[in-house]
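Now read these lines:
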Amino acid sequence: MILMYIFGLVILYFLVLGIHDSIKQRIRDKAAKEVLVGFDYKREKEEIISICANFVPEELLCPKCNGLMRTKKGAYGEFIGCSNYPNCRYTRSVK
């Protein structure tokens, strides 16, 4: 009988703990949504790209979209392509 009581308390403890964690996560999610309501991702991305353009060598920037160029492997060997693929399809051969 005592074991059943202890087992019930343990189960109850884990249920309450799970509900408590769930409530804490919901509160964090709600707070994050409230902070990010007015956040303009597109404007921030453009600002970051413009700042990075001052520090990244020009040969590493895509001439079409200012994305970063990176080495990729394709069916015909290695090439340099834009990291914004598939939105930007600029490529050039490895020199």
Notes: The radius of gyration is 26 Å.
